[in-house]
Design brief:
The chain is built from four helices and twelve strands; from the N terminus they run βββαββαββββαβββα. α1 crosses α4. The strands form three sheets. An eight-stranded mixed beta sheet has the order 5-4-1-6-9-10-11-12, sandwiched between helices. It has a two-stranded antiparallel sheet with strand order 2-3. It has a two-stranded antiparallel ribbon with strand order 7-8. By secondary structure, the chain is an alpha/beta fold. The chain has a single domain, classed as Rossmann fold, CATH 3.40.50. The model has no long low-confidence stretch (mean pLDDT 96). The structure holds cytidine-5'-triphosphate. Cytidine-5'-triphosphate (CTP) binds next to β9.
Length: 212
């Protein structure tokens, strides 16, 4: 099956040299891409800026901002039978990115306020805007009330599965090499995946969602 996977953070430009981003390393998404390839799937990896080499045999579509990731997914998802949204997409972006580097006003001591506007929810657009009828899998990175938030996102975004991780824990999740997740299925079952290297967690997630 052709599978689209989003991975990594997005960068939202403030000016030509500055941006807003987050701590996502892309490791979980890249591990999923490698595991899906190993399971015999044809993988398209839509990735924000990361310090990782793309897994061999995986098609890479690099993007930078949330808007670029939205456009890339919109253009490709129709050719895929499954889509896994592991990217940590910025929820807000600067309203008016400056064309030139923003200069401070010397000696004024004044602060500055950056106006942000919401980005479009890519996963949340899959069922409606993109008309995607394939297997839809979201991720949720939470610091509290993980189960409640995960189940809310699963329903709100029309997912078949939602993979939740607790990013308040320092030993797993963002940036690390290990993860521990719970996979929530729209039809009820909740499958805990024990702590392990992201490559192993990726394989277990794929099995749980019927792609491994
Ligand atoms: N997501 C997306 N596009 C966005 C924001 C999120 O595709 N603009 C996807 C992520 O890739 C992930 C899921 O939605 O699969 C959940 O992302 P998250 O940021 O945790 O959820 P939000 O709906 O943004 O909720 P909140 O930030 O309030 O927790």
């Amino acid at each position: 099956m052709r599978i689209l996977i989003t991975a990594g953070p997005t960068r939202e430009p403030i000016d030509p040299v500055r941006y807003i981003s987050n701590r996502s390393s892309g490791k979980m998404g890249y591990a999923l891409a490698a595991a899906a390839r190993d399971a015999g799937h044809d993988v398209l990896l839509v990735s924000g800026p990361v310090a990782l080499a793309p897994p061999e045999g995986v098609e890479l579509l690099p993007v930078t901002s949330a808007a670029e990731m939205f456009a890339a997914v919109e253009g490709e998802i129709g050719r895929c039978g499954a889509a896994i949204f592991a990217a940590a997409v910025a929820d807000y972006t600067p309203a008016h990115p400056a064309r030139q580097k923003i200069k401070k006003v010397p000696g004024s001591g004044a602060g500055m306020t950056l106006e942000l506007v919401p980005t479009r929810d890519i996963l949340g657009s899959a069922r409606g805007t993109f008309g995607f009828a394939g297997l839809l899998v979201g991720f949720a990175a939470e610091t509290e009330d993980v189960r409640e938030h995960a189940l809310g996102k699963l329903r709100r975004k029309g997912c078949d599965f939602l993979v939740a991780n607790d990013v308040s824990r320092r030993d797993i999740g963002f940036d690390g090499d290990q993860n521990e997740v719970v996979v929530y299925a729209a039809d009820g079952p909740e499958t805990p995946v024990p702590k392990g290297p992201k490559s192993e967690v990726a394989r277990a997630v794929l099995r749980t969602i019927g792609l491994g």
